[in-house]
Amino acid sequence: MKYRILGLLSAALLHSSFALAQTGKAGKSDTDKSGTRHKAPVANEVPATPPKQDIVIIPSWLPPENPVQPAATVVTNVLDTKLDVRFDWVKQWVLGTATLTLRPHFYPQNQVVLDAKGFDIKSVRLLVNGKEKNLTYTYDKQKLAITLDRNYPRTEAYQVRITYTAKPNELPASGSAAITSNKGLYFINPLGTDKTKPRQIWTQGETEANSAWFPTIDKPNQRMTQEIALTVEEKFRTISNGLLISSRKNADGTRTDIWKQALPAAPYLTMLVVGEFAVISDTWRGKAVEYFVDPPYSTTAKAVFGHTPEMLEFFSTRLGVEFPWEKYAQVAVHDFVSGAMENTTASTFQDKLTQFTPRELLDLSYESESVVAHELFHQWFGDYVTSESWSNLPLNEAFADYSEFLWAEHKYGPAEAALVQQKALTAYLEEAQTKREPLIRYRYADREDMFDRHSYSKGGRVLHMLRQYVGDEAFFVALNRYLVRNKLSSVEIAELRLAFEEVTGEDLTWFFDQWFLKRGHPELKITHSYAGNQVALRVRQMQDSTFSPIYQLPVTVTTWVNNQPVNHRIVVTKADQTFSLPVSQRPALVKFDAAGQLLAELEEERSTEELLYQFYHAQNFLQKYEAIMLLRGKTMDLPVSAMLRNALSDDFWAVRQTAVEALRRYKGSEGTAVRKDLQRVATDDSKTRVRAAAISSLSAFPNEDYGQLYTSALADSSYIVASAAVNALAKAPTVTSLKEIIRLQETKNAALIDAVSNYFALNGTADQYEWFLRRSNDVRNEALYQFLQNFATLMLRMPPVERDKGIARLETIARSYPNQYAKLGAYKGLSMLVSSSPGVKLTLQDIRSREKDKNLATIYTMLQ
User: Fold this and answer.
1) Boundary residue ending a domain (609, 626, 645)
2) How far is CA 552 from CA 47, 447, 472, 490, 555, in A?
């Protein structure tokens, strides 16, 4: 599945497990003028001396030994699926008839076993020459085993028709950090009692959840064509895979739409959506491109999705494979259980990722556009060519992740693309603190464990290194070969390697083995010295080679002499290796991996002067970013503060924002000038994120009064700027600030709700207690996570006797709210009240004991 939001829950798991796993490692300080080495901003400290050979220290990031998870054995092939479904909104049931065309894979079969979770089976019949024949079957609510009328050879297909009622809402609750529920099909506001959201039905099939609403062989190495007839009330629109081939009105006031997809795809990619949508139409090379959104967002949908035709053209041209499917629709739905999902011909998105008011559009960054690129690229990598098993998931997800870089590079240039790369590398290295797995994982506890920052962020960076190694032309020719040769089939990692080897003529086993099949990443310590017109560059691989490989690393080192850069290509192959680089004189800077291509942790020796030189002569965003991050602890040095003030006027907004954040709590002699610069940025910068960051940095200066600036910012056109101002006033309220914040308290914007609730938590009264109770009914899902903890903070300042309603509200959400993030926020809010509210401790114990979601139960245990 596609664009995972690995945010709050993943962060909570990461934070808790990292805290438990700490072994006393200490980071090094930033450099001084004598040349003390600087550590890269994302690096972790590693032991300088390996452990003794007779002692094996198990690192905290080494996962437990999990069972081998092979690809599913294919006994029977699902060739075609025809569904006729209607819905009972009150009972939240699917009333369906499935006609499956099946064929034995190789060996003759007299039985077929289908996945069907929680059904009532009405009948199972064999279709022969237009007639139906009852078949015997056994069913255990998970598997439907059908006995056929005879043995069928692999050359003969047969059809089975199953009439059933699916009850996905009655299945046991289960989910993961990436996909928070696996019911397969979801009724949203089925009775229309919730006035904050529309009535909708939508599906989410990945990983193997579509068998909760239609019978199939729910494995990624199956492939089928399909036709789905959807009978709904006349007012609703339907969306499904393929093309709408007919639509008829029925006598009972309903309508039946029939959707047909002619190209075969894996069962988990089947989808449907029912709801009242505005449809914005586009086209690309004669194919329909449509955007389905709630009617109030019809005027802004094109601002979000409007680059889709250009993306289709770019990806089709770059890959040499035209977008293969019949049409492409993008649908925003409410309460979606993942970020987004790349169903063939029709991707589904969380509404909060793709539906924005005109004011919210001002704060959109590339991240919002990247989700559109991510899901679209899956139409090739994941849909057209599909991983044969979840162990090979990076063949889907690494490519979709890398598409975000490719689109940013094409549309916005190298700086924006480098920012995508830097964020992804940081995300992976954060996760690597607590777990390190091979990209291609044949061992895992649960298939949804594969949906992590390894499969996404690390995978995308590995593809980028492969591109840099073989060159652009070879990279895209190899991808074309991979797609053409394996079209409409399922694959494993060997197919990708063979495509690259055939194009380049090189045996690339070394690359695929160390990056795809081994865990970990390089942890490099780089030092250099100069003598006799030679730079001696020493590279040491410090990772524990008991559990990670010694890497072969083709890399570029740049030396700067007389302000001219010279690139030296080297290949690191040993644990400790020294290279001689010719120079005409002592270089002003020696930069390892100047283009920032390696997926690695670097501890690279550079003095303050060298880092300043790096910033002023930077060839890319990553060099500037690294220099700022490594010098952010030395802002009292005049040359450093001058560099940061210079960076406040950089052409690229992310450089300005990084500099703004580095000047937080500045204590040097230029304090007045720095604060004036930050005030200028806070009011005048063209980028809303930079203005917001400047307000946050100003709020960190003690004993300074910027109340007027903050109050003015409350009226900023940007929500995130106004939110930053609210948070600043929460720490330093003015005489009128409460009155000003109350004017904002009915906002529906998540960022502003978070800020207002923070202000009330710290400065509110009993009036705001009632506000928290009221707004907790309409603040939704993830937005409740911090909101409820802020509510608890306010309650700490209320008399215990006044807290009953608030505690009851938190308990209700912690026990029964459908969203994991909201439940976690409520639980943490209750935890804050334990010491001052008798009975809460027992309530928390009971909540923990009854929690069926394994991820939440794990977090609750860690929070005890």
Assistant:
1) 609
2) 21, 30, 20, 30, 10
